[in-house]
Design a protein that fits this description.
mainly beta; 13-stranded antiparallel beta sheet; about 15% helix
């Protein structure tokens, strides 16, 4: 199967007779292809992949529960051990360090024990919400406690750090929208929304009548994209987009005075080819420059230039930068950069963590804990940074020099920090981090962040609108200017070590790569993602990595190869197909709430790319419709909440099924029948858009198994019972893969448990 992107470059997928991916070829230059191959055992387990540089990673399956060893190209290996029901009981990493896991009767992790016998423990309520997490690691004594309301929404989060307690509180309205966020220092931020659930105002509570406005004047286009917003200091930001909803311009003004003006041009594959950059500096001078960018066939940045600087980049076939300008890089078989032509050398431990950097007489040493988190950096034997993490892997303390700073989070966002000189609170809104309120040695100030399409800080202004910092960057995030602000490239903290903290890992912008391997292993259908050090697939102008795990576009958009792109909105998601047609999750939720259940299901199918045009649909009656997929007719019957209540009354049973797909006869061309049930929850709410998304997507995975014929191959191999279990495990795997895009409370726990239950059942038939 060949996929040709909008720039005319091919990606070719090769499959065997069991529909297993065996080879991917990617065109990186005209008629020049990389080749990645995959091999399987007789029951379909992936046993090895050989990357485009001919390096082999192999997999061993010594248990009925699956993978027991991963062996890397340098012969280092990881081992996995399971309990008698298939839970991962222990893991031995390439350094030889063991991590053990304990579970309760519901297969929830209750304890993690590291090689040094330090432990993490977890406690759950009856709804499987985590209510407490403890870390007894030396020097921490950290715990986190959570409180929930009856809808399983977090209402309070309390952390103890170094004997001090910090609480963050949340309040919601009847529409499940966050309205009040209370910080550890008692500051309260209020959020307001319009009738379409879009944010309209962010303010700091004072007394109810003199509250401090931090952001308002928010306007939207018909697709709920922000076109204008006003900051609390009077500056106004304006945004424009093209038909594919790519940013065309970002402008910041104070009345008629322009502070920032960014204008974008794209190629046919949505790579930015030109950025016209205008900005006012701290001396109020207006500056302008034009940055130009070029890419290879894999959309990797190959050149970037403006009047002030110029860079060129060369890559190997698996995405390692092998040359930047005149500096060349040596890379080993596990994608670790070992040396530069300027005399810089690097060393790594067996887990792939950078442990040493040397250049001339200078040496940098890096120390890690058993979770591969950076804990200390030394420069020429002097400590320049020490880091402590919480039980949920948030970086909660940083010691640089004599300053010891504590950080408190809401989710992945830093809300509050304090040290001996004062405190800082961070406020978030539509533009990400919008403001910082500081109290330093008794003096209070408010600063506003003004960002580009990547959420990189470009300007910082104070409460009077005066520019206090202007920042520019080289393509991979190296700051061109230095100042006091540490929240910089893609909104991440840059430490005194010159490393960016991305959450899961640290990023070295000078090398354009991470210090450690990605905990996620990548996707076989996209071989460039299998390089676990590369930053944003080597396209830092277009992509961001929100937490150091997976890249996405700066607009929060994820796209598949059919051109279906999903991006975040203030109250859900919007899907855009290759033609620019839009399906909004907000619109779908409105249809559910208004009782248009068939319309909601059809919109989800459009959202997922199964239906492209209203003309593709044939309506049978008010509950049934059909459409074509791969030449087969799929008929979907939609049951309203009233229909479900009637089924329950007739069967005298509580109906728990939300969807089912009926098995067609083997070798037939019969219709594939899917049933979707809109059952109201205990709280009386209708099914949410997110729940419907996962239900419809799950059933379509089953439909595809029948249409492709692979389900019947599974029946031949594993019996009908084994095939059903494998079919369900594969469908739930789709749900798990989609959770980073769309989720709902309890989804991860439910899908994980169902996947484990079915994969365990399937293993009985091997």
């Amino acid at each position: 199967m060949t996929f040709t992107n909008a720039r005319g470059y091919d990606r070719i997928y090769w499959y065997d007779w069991l529909s297993r991916l065996t080879k991917v070829e990617e065109e990186y230059a005209t008629n020049l292809f990389t080749q990645t191959t995959y091999q399987y055992d007789e029951i379909g387990n992936l046993t090895s992949f050989i990357d485009a540089e001919n390096h082999t990673t192999s997999y061993t399956y010594g248990s009925i529960f699956g993978l027991t060893r991963t062996t890397y190209p340098d012969s280092t290996y990881e081992e996995y051990f399971y309990d008698n029901v298939g839970n991962l009981a222990s893991f031995i990493d390439c350094n030889g360090d063991e991590t053990e896991y304990t579970y309760d009767s519901l297969y929830r992790v209750t304890e993690v024990e590291y090689e040094d016998q330090s432990t993490l423990s977890f406690v759950y309520d009856l709804n499987s919400n985590r209510i407490r997490m403890d870390d007894d690691s030396p020097g921490t004594g950290d715990y986190v406690e959570y409180s929930y309301d009856k809808w399983n929404r977090v209402t309070a989060e309390t952390r103890r750090i170094s004997q001090d307690s910090y609480t963050v509180s949340y309040q919601y309205d009847a529409a499940n929208r966050l309205t009040n966020l209370t910080y550890p220092n008692g500051m309260e931020i209020l959020y307001s929304y319009d009738d379409l659930n879009r944010p309209t105002e962010v303010k700091r509570y004072v007394d109810g009548s003199n509250d401090e406005i931090l952001m308002d004047g928010i306007e939207y286009d018909t697709e709920s994209a922000v076109t204008q917003l006003d900051y609390g200091n009077g500056l106004r930001a304006s945004f424009s987009y093209d038909s594919l909803h790519r940013p065309l311009s970002i402008e910041l003004r104070d009345g008629e005075t322009s502070y920032l003006d960014l204008d974008y041009t794209y190629d046919d594959n949505s790579n930015i080819t030109q950025l016209v950059n205008g900005w006012r500096d701290t001396d109020t001078n207006w500056n302008s420059d034009t940055e130009s960018y070029s890419y290879d066939g894999l959309d990797r940045l190959t050149s970037a230039s403006c009047t002030a600087w110029s860079h060129s980049y060369t890559y190997d076939k698996v995405g390692n930068i092998t040359a930047k300008d005149a500096i060349t890089c040596t890379v080993n078989t596990t994608n670790e950069v070992t040396s530069l032509s300027d005399g810089t050398a690097f060393a790594y431990d067996s887990n792939g963590n950078r442990i040493e950097k040397t250049k001339g007489t200078d040496t940098w040493d890096y120390t890690y804990d058993y979770a591969n988190r950076l804990t200390k950096v030394k420069e020429n034997d002097a400590v320049v940074g020490e880091y402590i993490y919480s039980v949920d892997s948030r970086r909660i303390q940083v010691k640089e020099g004599i300053a010891n700073t504590t950080f408190i989070y809401s989710g992945l966002n830093i809300l509050y920090e304090e040290n001996t000189t004062g405190t800082a609170t961070y406020i978030y809104g539509l533009a990400g981090q919008i403001a910082k309120m500081t109290t330093i040695q008794g003096e209070s100030n408010t600063f506003y962040y003004h960002t580009d399409h990547l959420k990189s800080t470009r300007l910082v202004t104070d409460e009077s609108g005066t520019i206090v910092e202007d920042v520019r960057y080289h393509p991979f995030g190296e700051p061109i200017t230095n100042g006091e602000e540490s929240c910089l490239y893609t909104g991440k903290e840059r430490d005194s070590t010159d490393l960016y903290y991305y959450g899961a890992r640290y990023y070295d912008s000078d090398l354009g790569r991470f210090l450690t391997r990605d905990p996620l292993t990548g996707t076989n259908t996209s071989p460039q993602t299998l390089n676990r050090y590369a930053y944003c697939l080597d396209n830092p102008v277009k992509l961001i990595d929100p937490v150091g795990l997976k890249s996405t576009t700066g607009q929060g958009k994820m796209c598949d190869e059919a051109g279906i792109c999903i991006r975040a909105t203030p109250d859900g998601w919007i899907a855009t197909n290759a033609n620019g047609d839009v399906i909004s999750s907000t619109d779908i939720q409105e249809k559910i709430d208004e009782g248009d259940y068939v319309g909601a299901v059809i919109d989800v199918l459009k959202f997922l790319g199964y239906i492209n045009d209203e003309n593709d649909i044939t309506y049978i009656d008010e509950k049934n419709f059909t459409f074509k997929y791969e030449g087969r007719t799929i008929q979907i019957t939609v049951y309203s909440p009233e229909d479900v209540e009637a089924i329950e009354a007739e069967s005298k049973e509580v109906w728990t099924t939300r969807g089912e797909t009926l098995r067609p006869k083997r070798n037939s061309k019969d219709r594939v029948f899917i049933r979707i049930y809109f059952k109201k929850g205990e709280n009386g709410y209708n099914m949410t858009f997110a729940e419907l998304f996962h239900t419809v997507g799950h059933e379509m995975e089953h439909a595809k198994q029948f249409i492709s014929g692979i389900f019947y191959d599974w029946e031949d191999e594993y019996t009908s019972e084994g095939a059903r279990a494998l079919s369900e495990s594969e469908a739930y795997r789709w749900n798990l893969l989609m959770l980073p895009i769309i989720s709902f409370p309890g989804a991860a726990e439910m899908f994980s448990n169902e996947w484990l239950k079915n994969i365990t059942e399937y293993q009985k038939y091997l």
